[in-house]
Every structure is written in structure tokens, then in C-alpha cells.
């Protein structure tokens, strides 16, 4: 008999619809790609239907008590993913979830969350002394409310000793793809990603949001004039001291502002702006990696390759082949 892995997704009133349906579709599509049921999927929720925050109704397969009792298959060695959404903060006020989650956690193969679902796990103490992430808008709240959790504010998803957490909304799809890859390998997950019309599944360390979004996020702060200069001329020779001088503050204070408002350092931010400029040039023209690295002050061509792989999840040559105006790759 083929090994079947049980995956349960927990929904509750005012949950984020895509936090449920995104991961669900990844596992369902994997079954289709394999031509057999490798994942047995269950939606756990209370009552006959759960209203999502977008107004669409979800119909649970089982209630929590039924699932925990094994009515949908053995809980032991199953995976449980908790959806996010504004409704999670109401759920966190209900002590029964702490008891329930702590009862099943030792029996599960994987315990994870999408988006703000991390708050329910953290409230139960199940993320203590673990690396974890959540939607970028709520990372600071998670860190302040649960100081025992090592919040990775800029990670797309995080695996740490049986705990699996992801950033907001579509990042749950990336998390689910990473689980499929761990189970079935890169060839299968690549096929699943293509079926879902995704370029490639993104690595967990990739930034949650683009530099443009980060710029907008800080647009009302003292950083705005500097950010505008960095984006207007990223190839300009700049260091921490010269950036601090431009906004008339000390290097230490500038670093604190960047860390608090953008979750990174000034030089890391500048590197990412330069990398984005190099990516655009890679698509538009036939410049070599050596030329791009030199022009955008990103070190050697090999350093540029490593940066590209880390931030975009693929090599420059593959990216250019897929998206460039020329099929020639470096």
C-alpha cells in the first residue's frame, strides 16, 4: 500500500481564505501530478461552515474533537497547519486552544501556521525557543507579545525542529511547496509549481516584500529622503557614514531607524536596491554578470550569482532565460 500522509488545515471564523485554500491546492495538485493520493486532506473547523474574512464560506470535514479522536484518520504523524487571519486574535483569547494544541503537538509529524496563525501556536507556547515568522505587518507584535519566540521578520517561511511558519497569504503556498519538496523531491515540486503557474517555489530566506513596498512602508518617516536617493541612484558610491550625513544623523541612529522601520541595515538595504536594478538590467539587455556586478557595485560576478540565488531563488542564467528579452544567458 502506498504511504499516505495526512494533512489537516485548521480554519475558524474570520480566517484568511487563501491561507487555507493556497496550501490545500498545493497538496491536492501534488496528488494530481502523482496520479494517486499521497496526501489525505482534511479541513478542521467548528460547525457546518466557517465564514472567511472575505465572505466566502468554508465547509469543514470534521470538528476538532472528531479529528483528535481519529475519525478522519490517525492524528499520529499527521501534519497540522493553522490558517491566519484577523480572527486568530479572538481564538487566542480562548484557553481551549492552548490545551488542544499541546495535546496533539507531541503526536504530530509537523505543526505549522500560515500568516498570523503563528499567534495561536505562540500563545500555546509551541514556538518557544524556536525561529518563526508571520506576516511582515505583525512581526513586531509577535516578537513583543511572545519574547520567547525568535521572530525572523524578513523570512518567507521558517522550518525549525518540527515547527513550520510562514509569512502572509501567498507565502503559505511556498511553505506547502517546501513540504512537498521535503517529501517527494525537487522534480515533483517543480512539476507542481508549473501546474500552479508559478515560476518556481521561493526559498524560505527570500524577503517577504519588495524594496518598493519597503520604501512605501517608510515613506512617512525621516528615512524617506534617503530612500528616494538610494532608489534614484543606487550605483552611487555610498557607505553608512555618507548615508547618515545625508539625513543629518549619526550612523548609529540611522542603523536603529532602518532596523526598526525596515527590518534591515542601511547597507543591506542598499545592496538589495542595487540587486533589483541589476535584475532589471538582466532582463532588458545582454550585459554580462561581470558588467552588471561592476556597474551596480555588487562585487564580483560570483558574488552577484550568490546574491541572486539567495534573494530570487534561482540563478541569473535561469532567470534571464525565463524572463529576458534575449535567450542568451551568462
List its traits.
10 strands; alpha/beta; Arc Repressor Mutant, subunit A; disordered C terminus; 6-stranded mixed sheet; 330 residues; Rossmann fold; globular; 16 helices; two-stranded antiparallel ribbon; single chain
**What is the count of DSSP helices, taking H or I runs of 4+ residues?**
16
Mean pLDDT level: 88
Highest CATH level, the class of the largest domain: Alpha Beta
- Biggest sheet: strands side by side, in what order? 2-1-5-6-10-9
Domain unit count: 2
Write a compact overview of the structure shown:
Helices cover 47% and strands 11% of the residues. With 330 residues, it is α/β, with parallel strands linked by helices.
Write structural notes for this entry.
This protein folds into 2 domains: 5-195, 3-Layer(aba) Sandwich (Rossmann fold), CATH 3.40.50.880; 211-323, Homeodomain-like (Arc Repressor Mutant, subunit A, Orthogonal Bundle). The longest helix has 19 residues, at 266-284. Helix 6 (139-145) links the parallel strand 7 (131-132) and strand 8. The protein is α/β, with parallel strands linked by helices and 330 residues long. Helix 1 packs parallel to helix 7 (171-184), helix 7 (171-184) packs antiparallel against helix 8 and helix 11 crosses helix 12. The strands form 3 sheets. Strands 2-1-5-6-10-9 form a 6-stranded mixed sheet. A two-stranded antiparallel sheet has the order 3-4. It contains 16 helices and 10 strands.
Amino acid at each position: 500500500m502506498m504511504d499516505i500522509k495526512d494533512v489537516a488545515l485548521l480554519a475558524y471564523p474570520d480566517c484568511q481564505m487563501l491561507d487555507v485554500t493556497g496550501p490545500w491546492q498545493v497538496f491536492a495538485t501534488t496528488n494530481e501530478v502523482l496520479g494517486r493520493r499521497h496526501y489525505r486532506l482534511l479541513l478542521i473547523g467548528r460547525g457546518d461552515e466557517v465564514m472567511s474574512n472575505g465572505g466566502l464560506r468554508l465547509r469543514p470535514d470534521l470538528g476538532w474533537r472528531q479529528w483528535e479522536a481519529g475519525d478522519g484518520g490517525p492524528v499520529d504523524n499527521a501534519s497540522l497547519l493553522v490558517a491566519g487571519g484577523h480572527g486568530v486574535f479572538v481564538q487566542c483569547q480562548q484557553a481551549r486552544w492552548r490545551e488542544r494544541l499541546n495535546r496533539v503537538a507531541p503526536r504530530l509529524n509537523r505543526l505549522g501556521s500560515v500568516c498570523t496563525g503563528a499567534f495561536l501556536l505562540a500563545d500555546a507556547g509551541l514556538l518557544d525557543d524556536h525561529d518563526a515568522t508571520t506576516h511582515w505587518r505583525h512581526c513586531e507584535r509577535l516578537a513583543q507579545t511572545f519574547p520567547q519566540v525568535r521572530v525572523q521578520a524578513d523570512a518567507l517561511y521558517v522550518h525549525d525542529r518540527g515547527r513550520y511558519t510562514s509569512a502572509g497569504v501567498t507565502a503559505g503556498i511556498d511553505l506547502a511547496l517546501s513540504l512537498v519538496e521535503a517529501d517527494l523531491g525537487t522534480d515533483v515540486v517543480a512539476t507542481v509549481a508549473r501546474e500552479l503557474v508559478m515560476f518556481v517555489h521561493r526559498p524560505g530566506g527570500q524577503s517577504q516584500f519588495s524594496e518598493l513596498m519597503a520604501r512605501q512602508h517608510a515613506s512617512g518617516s525621516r528615512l524617506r529622503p534617503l530612500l528616494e536617493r538610494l532608489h534614484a541612484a543606487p550605483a552611487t558610491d555610498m557607505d553608512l557614514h555618507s548615508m547618515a550625513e545625508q539625513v543629518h544623523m549619526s550612523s548609529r541612529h540611522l542603523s536603529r531607524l532602518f532596523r526598526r522601520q525596515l527590518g534591515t541595515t542601511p547597507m543591506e538595504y542598499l545592496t538589495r536596491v542595487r540587486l533589483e536594478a541589476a535584475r532589471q538590467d538582466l532582463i532588458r539587455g545582454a550585459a554580462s554578470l561581470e558588467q552588471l556586478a561592476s556597474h551596480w557595485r555588487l562585487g564580483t560576478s560570483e558574488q552577484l550569482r550568490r546574491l541572486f540565488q539567495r534573494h530570487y531563488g534561482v540563478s541569473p542564467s535561469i532567470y534571464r532565460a525565463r524572463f529576458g528579452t534575449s535567450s542568451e544567458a551568462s
